[in-house]
User: What shape does this take?
Amino acid sequence: MCLNNNQTVVSKVRTVILILSLMLIAPITLVPFQVTYSPLFDGDNAFSYLTDQCDFGPRPPGSENLSECREYIFNTLVQEGWTVSFQNFTYRSVDCVNIIATWPVQNSTITVLGAHYDTRPHADQESDPEDRTRPVLGANDGASGVAALLELARVLPEAIRSSIEMVFFDAEDSGYIDDWDWIVGSTHYVDQLTSSKRESITAMILLDMIGDVNLRIPREASSTDSLQDRLWSIAADLGHDDVFLDTPGSSILDDHRPFLAAGIPAVDLIHTPFPWTWHTLQDTPDNCSPESLEAVGRVVEYFLVELTASTVSTTPFPTDPPIDFALIITIALPLAIVAIVALVFFKRR
Ligand SMILES: [Zn+2]
Assistant: This one.
């Protein structure tokens, strides 16, 4: 009995040691099978890039303020080791410039990150007609996307920078003013791509109006679904599903459209319905927040690190299928016939 008792005690002690050992070993053995990357994007630092741009004042195309802001973006990127070039073009007699940042050695496949750095010349959403010709400061609509790109330029791991190209578009936001078009800079950038360069772009991510204090980004309707799925999944994993809403959003004419038209998977991260400050004199830094910039910046950072680490050799983001007109006809035509017959029948009665 005594021996038995001793055996029971020994076996219980062994079991406890075994369980404790498993508890200790389990986390260590599980770690290598998880994606372990903690984003470094800092919202406060990004916010300082936003206020720096606003300090130049409103920045419409062709203005001295925009030239100064361009130099600021150039210097900030060069300080972080990026190679920066200016893509000059003229639109309606105004000298415009896209800013392009690449890592000194570029990979055969890249992701393009985009944001417009110009601001709207007129606050035409103001209620007072006298205010509607005053220029917008563009803390959210202009500076926020640029701020996030500059912070990414600072924190992205050097190992993945050769797979990134950052483009700061000019002349996005003057549509309907003096017969200007929208998205002029991005249209020019895509027009200038050689076919081999176009084929090297795996994905395009556009950041536009991502700084509002109450930031809400639904799934913009024209964006590539497969690309959107991945970003929204990461957002949920990082706890930012309060910003990245898993709901359908509107279709927006924005700088991602020329990329989509060229067959490049593209996504527009944009606040819709547009915040109340949109194209008003209230688009100022006090209506923006570091937390909003950080939520978007960290999701994009994680996405880029994961994409570059993945071993997928083929296009990871299939483009959306074109609208199936045959399917529409097979469904819509019989419905239309039934509706007409029903209408005639009820009219006769
Ligand atoms: Zn705008």
User: Anything to note?
Assistant: The domain at 43-309 is CATH 3.40.630.10 (Aminopeptidase). Residues 9 and 99 are 74 Å apart (CA to CA). The pocket of zinc ion is lined by residues 120, 141, 173, 279 (CB under 6 Å).
